Amino acid sequence: MNLLWLQSAGCGGCTMSLLCAEDPNALELFEDAGIDILWHPAISEATGAEARGVLESVLAGETPLDVLCVEGSIVTGPRGTGRFHMLSGTGRSMLEWCRQLAPLAEDVVAVGTCAAFGGITAAGNNPAGAIGLQFEGAHLGGALPESFRSRSGRPVINVAGCPTHPDWVTETLLLLAGGNFGDDALDSFNRPRFYTDHLVHHACPKNEYYEYKASARHLSELGCMMEHLGCIGTQAVGDCNIRPWNGGGSCTRGGYPCIACTSPEFENPRTTFTETPKVAGIPVGLPSDMPKAWFMALASLSKAATPERIDRNAKSDRIEVPPKPKRERT
Question: Whole-structure pTM over 0.70, yes or no?
Fold first, then answer.
């Protein structure tokens, strides 16, 4: 399987994340799966004329293209020309390259939320005109039209995340290489369901505090971060806490609230990332699949039943009261 990777407007964090893949590492995994990287701007040795030759060979149809991976948002400025971001030495914008190469690929993969929806590059007033490959924010129609389909008949596969989990990228590519990417494999934003059928809330180590609504008020405290610190893990899709990063990490495991980085337009929240917006003291963002009245009723009961151990530990940066055995030894 021939893979071409282009790096558009972004920080390169998704490539950095991919290189953190473990057991096996990404390069060993690609080799074992028969995935040939035609060119990657950070990994490949080819530069200059040699790299341009690879691109021209694909464009001319001399080298078959199975997967086109694009990392980073597509810049359309100024005035829709894309010339704010030129692919060095080619005289063509990244926007033009993506539009020319995408129809030649068996599949097109947007690596990270920037490539999928515009992401951080599109934040604020978006002076660069940053958009995703097939989405502009939450709306279809990006650098490629809503009707675009690759040679496989699939739309752009949006492996969203900021950065994306290395396993999300490698698992997507392995499924494509093995011909096992099914017709029902994508959700409504064309993200792979193997990770978006889960919530970040699933397997979060703070779930005991969440159950009793024992809330942290400051970063680094052990309590649930939903009520005061902006965590939206009960609404955000991703298996971040089921398959931890680098063998054991995630945002919430590290004491930072989930900011829903797999979602379109996460870069423009109504408040700061570490603040929970409220109306009359009630958080605006409640669990996505639970009626508000039920949640408030259960929250009141949970708070009333909170054990002292959980209440004290929630407001501390370490365990102050350990759990006791059911019967104390005398």
Answer: yes
